[in-house]
């Protein structure tokens, strides 16, 4: 008898729906078995994991009955005996290897008998135990970062943050087994299974291995990334609502990469896997996130004479990027670097020859200690890099600096609040305040550690270029709703900063982009000539009709608008703005009270906001403990301004607060999402 219910309750594993014992390391569990004729003192237990269990590698332990539990080794303490059965309390050390174990028992008095197998159990990390590397003293944080199956991910851009729900579902069905098989499919395991398994006591090691396994690069991992804007042959990254479907699909296909992922999908799946294994984990969104491909803590962007954003460098500034933070101690670096660690499963740059990233200590990033393991220079650049904007002439290959900015990158770094559906800003945990001397000192320290201060960089702008002062300033103002289906109205505001007349020729473009700001389709262009009296400000309205951008828009609903001003006798001025358009709203209503094992009706309401028909409408619904799997409903086409009411039934099977997630797609709108909390 594995005492599944009592052990699960004591080990915070009750949410797993498994017939197998699942316990956490460094904590005792009870087993009772019968059929032993021997005095209990003569029993020896064997716990072993991995393909080649060995005492040396700490993947096998042999232990007899002792009077008290031991902290540092496996041990067994007699609880009670009756005429034909015996109850034993078994404890594992708090640094035990995690994974699936075989437990056997042998009687020492009869030499000949071979060990009798008692079965298998799964051992996980234990954030509730103060001796565990992943110990998290705050119980509410343990609940959120290990046990919570619903999350909120932030997206959009720095001017316009939006969010959507996600079903991590780490305790559902077969997810634990899929997570364990993920470890057994890693490159490290394939190269040397016994050594790989022996390192599975270390959250640093597992975190790093899993950042490689969640992307398909190198190892046929879970998700294939695609940032092209064309997602044929798979599911558009924005249409997923949870990790379960992705992990199940990966297993069902014989572990072939699932198509397609982008950063938040990689991060959400990694959250599921790490929470499942017991490592406290959360998703983090960084707005205006730098991808610094050449490790110089600088991102270069190039524009042609017409103001088109050129895709000619590996460097880029993403509207947002999502990664993970996991909580564990860093015995390799020292106590001041323990706590939140950055892990990133999105394949951006190779580390150690494969696409993996982290763990990078968040404290090390804040203090500019970029020489510490792992991948600190890349993460430091994501939140701190300087930006250089260049004009590039493809005919001559000549580039001219337009301007540079050191305060653009790394803004509104966001995560979900503990126990609430709110956004919490953690920017100050990544860096000192922008513009402060401390922040610049840390930036210089990081440059120095990377050897950038001392060597001449021929690609860097000269001090003269950096110090040039423009004659005019400009900005784009929004003048109207930012919604898919409505015309886009902007105002270009130009101001003369000098006390003499200035004339400028202004080339304007608008491109649809993916959220990484990679240009996909040109939508619009125009040019104007402008004369500004001394200190004068002028406004130029711009209208981009829905009919002009509708065909070109990507599923990210993002448009980049640029005005490159060629000022007579002065330096060029670049004005740009990234626009994220909101999808129309969709509403969920629960009609009646939700009770366990009782049917309840749910209605989803969507109104077509545009003056043309929308077709190919599909609603997908998921929610742990509310319905099993994913409900997909084909919805009839909707005429202009028509309202659709979609009804379906749920039969909840657990009490408590649950989240229902819906995703509505059609030919004109991609992935309209919302969620609703349902109290069962």
From TrEMBL:
Oxidoreductase among keywords: no
InterPro entries attached to this UniProt entry: Ig-like_fold, Ig_E-set, Papain-like_cys_pep_sf, Transglutaminase, Transglutaminase-like, Transglutaminase-like_sf, Transglutaminase_animal, Transglutaminase_AS
SMART domains: TGc (SM00460)
Entry EC no(s): 2.3.2.13
Transmembrane parts of this sequence: none
Cofactor note: Binds 1 Ca(2+) ion per subunit.
Class of this enzyme: transferase
Residue numbers annotated as active site: 263, 321, 344
A molecular function (GO) term: protein-glutamine gamma-glutamyltransferase activity
PROSITE patterns in alphabetical order: TRANSGLUTAMINASES
Record flagged with keyword Calcium: yes
Domain Transglutaminase-like residue range list: 255-347
Cofactor(s) needed: Ca(2+)
A Pfam family that the UniProt record links to this protein: Transglut_N
Recorded catalytic activity of this chain's protein: L-glutaminyl-[protein] + L-lysyl-[protein] = [protein]-L-lysyl-N(6)-5-L-glutamyl-[protein] + NH4(+)
Keyword field: Acyltransferase, Calcium, Metal-binding, Transferase
Binding annotation for Ca(2+): 384, 386, 434, 439
Family, as annotated: Belongs to the transglutaminase superfamily. Transglutaminase family.
Protein known as: protein-glutamine gamma-glutamyltransferase
Organism: Antrostomus carolinensis
